[in-house]
Description:
The complex is a heterodimer.
Chain A: E1 3-5, H1 7-22, E2 28-33, E3 38-43, H2 50-70, E4 78-82, E5 86-93, E6 97-104, H3 109-127
Chain B: E1 3-5, E2 10-18, H1 25-35, E3 45-48, E4 54-67, E5 70-78, H2 86-93, E6 98-104, H3 110-126, E7 136-141, H4 155-163, E8 170-172, H5 181-201
Parallel strand pairs in B: 2-5, 2-6, 6-7, 7-8
Antiparallel strand pairs in B: 1-2, 3-4, 4-5
Amino acid sequence: MDLVLSKEAIDNIITVLDEDLLRAGADCVLLVDRSGNLIVNRGDPANLDVLALAALSAANFGATAEIAKLIGEDDFALLFHKGKNENIHFTKVGKGFILITLFGKDVSLGLIRLNTAKVTDNLVPILGGEL
Amino acid sequence: MSFIDLSKNEVQCKIVYYGPGRGGKTTNLLYLHQAMTDSVRGKMVTIDTKGDRTLFFDFLPLALGKIQGLSIKIQLYTVPGQVMYNATRKLVLKGVDGIVFVADSLKVQKEKNVESLANLKENLAEDNIDIKEIPLVLQYNKRDLGGSNIPILSVEEMQEDLNQELQVPYFSGSALKGDGVFETLREISKGTVKFVSRKLLSR
């Protein structure tokens, strides 16, 4: 059950997140596991408590998975919360991970959705056996 | 599920405080949060209802220094103790590496302690975890009420109810005053880090 990632794997994850999400305008990107561990965070999280965000996101995903079960689904593949200035987008990566993307009001949701789908595809082989 | 980041030489483990409702799980975390310096502790997050009861969980990240060059990061969670919130407890238990069971010393809570421990065993078994294998520490909380006119259970009685079969380390405590809180954390952290490193070596 435990997850061990080499420096090389972490570097590969960072490259994928930087190229496809930060360059597309996301403010901050986090990869966390479903039990709330923060794997990688990128971007500018200066005033952001990333550990709490990781724990709460995993819990949020778990809670909405229960909602999904009520309507006959296993879980939801993505969640989106819209704020006044800042938005947050969660995507499931494999069975065990969640990709969290924070972006401002001047970045389009469509672009983030498109790029998170690409990132998810690219992360799966890196996380490989850990999924 | 612990996470080992070899690029930062860092280990992250998850420790869950479990036990009956109103037993002092949140108070344990609050005391640790107050007593620790900013360099060790992160921000504490609590999701509770108006009446002091934990609705979802409390969360407190700690950095416990280095062991053989690896930095140890521990994340403490509590669960809601009330019987009806079992779905939430299962969610929070996901990926747990170590457990503190906070038992309530009040005599009227005798049954609740036993029920909650049985519930823990059941929930762990659903995740294929054997309660006898995972690091577990018992804390008999509210010992400061001894000598007051509120009837409390003796430590021997609590040992017989909860620890006869398990035979795990136990501490008397008063989370409100801080007695036993650090001792409990020290013991469970030690056990958890040992457990995680043993699992890693056998990979």
